[in-house]
Amino acid sequence: MKHVVVQSDLREAEIRPPRLLNRFRELSIEDAREFFGSPEGQIEVDCPACGQAGAPVAFEKNGFKYRLCATCGSLYVSPRPTAARLADYYRSSRAAQYRAEHLARETSAARRVRVIHANAYWMGRLVDEAGKSGSRIYGDLGTNYPVLFEEIAQLGLFDQYFSIEPFHGLAESCRQAGAVVAAEAPAGLAALTAFEQLEHQFSPREMLDRARGMLAPGGQLFLTTRTASGFDIQTLWDKAPYIYVPEHLNLLSIEGLERLIEGAGFDLIESSTPGQLDIELTQAAAAADPTVSLPRFIDLLLNRRDAEAREDFQALLQKHRLSSHVRIAAMKKLLTDCGK
């Protein structure tokens, strides 16, 4: 299984401008109170990664309980809104509208250069390395940046493109980018991407089961998500300003993610944390919030060492899978006992 280290000069403000991100966070927190504020419509769940029950509360944030699984180290919200409540939120909340009208559109160009192109190239390289298959159909689950289809088309690997349940308000942009918008893709996809999706699913396992059903035997699944194993989340914990419901119901550990994906009928191809922003995010959060208390070593690194030391430390986090940005490539098993 591969582990990858990435080097570039990515900065958070390029892909998540503070003005847009702060407003989106404000709306998300306000809307979560409105849509999910009462206990009715929320249910207790076991660890979404390994299924372990009885995890203690690690911290509470904006009225929601984040639990820490003692078995796999994953963070997750329980009780959580039901799948029906979440669907209503993503269909009709102000935050969902703001995502489509402002966050997605106004950051699309920068994200295309800094993130989307790299994700497309990563996927294309692994599909190409796997060799030709009988399918030339590609799908993206929960599309949040329609320009992804333009980047994928440039690879020359596929003849058909499907956007499966794009975020509310983005369907027409997906069509303009060359994709067929559908509630489900036809079975037999050669490749399926689900970027920044797993963290806000009611049931990550159900999402993976659904993905497996869309893929041809030997078809590949490509995921990106946040992980609780990452440096910035481990350091900031409940003070991490960018962790909130319902965007972050599941912050699964690396170990939990791998267990979940293999249990869903996939063979892992790559499990990496090529994140480049852990140090920057931690430094910014500590500067903005006087209640953040950094461990002495981390304070020394961030405030008394130069940029080269911080860059070297970020590379170390990548190498040992300790960044909070994770990407995973997996292949649907040719034979599986998972029912499909």
Q: Count of helices? A: 12
State the CATH class: Alpha Beta
End-to-end separation in angstroms reads 24 Å
Strand order of the largest sheet: 8-7-6-9-10-13-12
Order of helices and strands: HHEEEEEHHEHEHEEHEHEHEHHHE
Query: What average pLDDT do the residues reach?
Result: 92
Structural descriptors:
alpha/beta; seven-stranded mixed beta sheet; 13 strands; 12 helices; 19% strand; four-stranded antiparallel beta sheet; Rossmann fold; 340 residues; single chain
How is this structure best described in words?
The chain has 340 residues and is of the alpha/beta class. The protein is built from twelve helices and 13 strands. It has a single domain, classed as Vaccinia Virus protein VP39 (Rossmann fold, 3-Layer(aba) Sandwich), CATH 3.40.50.150. Helix 6 links the parallel strand 7 and strand 8. It is globular, with a radius of gyration of 19 Å. The model has no long low-confidence stretch (mean pLDDT 92).
